[in-house]
Amino acid sequence: MKSSGFVINWIIVIVAVCILLLVGVVLFFMGSGSGGFSKTEVKENPENIEQPPINNNPVDPTANVAKEITDATFKIDNTDVKLADGKSGTISVFNDPIKIDINNDGIEDKALMLTDSSKKAYYVSAAIKSGDGYIGTNAISLNVGDMAPKKISANGQIIIIDYSYRRSSDPVFERLATSIRKGFVFENGILKEANASTVAEKGCTSTGGKVVTTSCCKTAIDFSNNCLIGACGCSPNNSKQVRSCSCSSGKCFDGNECITK
Q1: Fewer Cβ neighbours under 10 Å: the N or C end of the chain?
Q2: Do 154 and 211 sit in the same domain of this protein?
Q3: H or E element, residue 17
Q4: Whether residue 95 is found in the same domain as residue 112
Q5: Considering 194, 220, 250, which residue would you say is the last residue of a domain?
Q6: 4-56, pLDDT tens digit by residue?
Q7: Are 125 and 159 in contact, with CB atoms under 8 Å apart?
Q8: Backbone phi and psi for residue 26, each to the nearest 5 degrees, phi listed first
Q9: Of 162-166, 187-191, 208-212, which range is least confident?
Q10: Residue 120's pLDDT band (boundaries 50, 70, 90)?
């Protein structure tokens, strides 16, 4: 009797061990699947390492890539124009290209002006750095009459064009030169004209000014020329709130930037 009881006890122990082993195996496989133990969370950039800027404006990978800007292809008046050493028929590069990271990818691109001698036309365009070469963007016409380009520059990701013009529709004796500033940005793969307020705000802050809200005449627009007397001298009933540029002492905002009075 003692022998049979001993055997039964050992059988019970072996069965219990087998059950424990089976439960352990089941739990192991449940933990390695989606329904069991949670996986270890992997944090992106755990050491807060500075990441490269995000390129929100990728260029067309199928576009023509030229080793030099002067050999790039630009879309002018909806036609692809490929330059060769800066020229193509009556079209040529007007100025020395300037440096700008126009698509905000951390890589230096170029901005430039083109001219068509047959039309007396001027265009602004850009060349996006791609690998070892450049991809030209669309070109935007600057012509508003008899114009004379003054300067091309960059402010952040904005191309700035300063020029003067005389409207050809005006009588000859009334054709006074007017100074104009326009900005251009690269968005969704296309070069386009920037909002005037955005350009003026950049011009304000980049020359030491601060953007403020002030009361001006109802005819005033945001970032008006406050170097002029009377722009904000109307009565409360004839005034409205506009955004303006407050320059440092001894300076005023001419509509484009802070200048010495």
Answers
A1: N
A2: no
A3: helix 2-32
A4: yes
A5: 194
A6: 556 666 667 676 667 777 766 556 656 554 444 334 343 444 344 444 444 55
A7: no
A8: -60, -45
A9: 162-166
A10: confident
Give the residue from 115, 72, 77 showing the smallest Cα distance to 93.
Answer: 115
Q: Residue 61 pLDDT > 80, yes or no?
A: no
The encoded tokens of residue 115 equal 């001219």
What distance in Å separates the CA atoms of residue 186 and residue 101, rounded to the nearest whole number?
10
In a domain, residue 140? The reply is: yes
Residue at which a domain ends, from 194, 223, 238: 194
The reply to whether 188 and 113 lie within a common domain is yes
> What one-letter code names the amino acid at 99?
K
Residue 150: inside a domain, yes or no? yes
Q: Which domain holds residue 137?
A: 69-194
* Mean pLDDT, residues 68-95 taken together: 94
> 188-210 b/e with 16+ CB inside 10 Å = b?
eeebeebeeeebbbbbbbebebe
Average pLDDT for 105-132: 93
Listed residue (216, 223, 227) closest to 251, CA to CA:
227
Q: Could you say which DSSP state residue 69 is in?
A: G
Element (H, E) at 204: helix 196-205
pTM score, two decimals?
0.67
What CA–CA distances, in Å, run from 2 to 7, 8, 9, 10, 13?
9, 10, 11, 13, 17
The answer to the question of residue 169 being in a domain is: yes
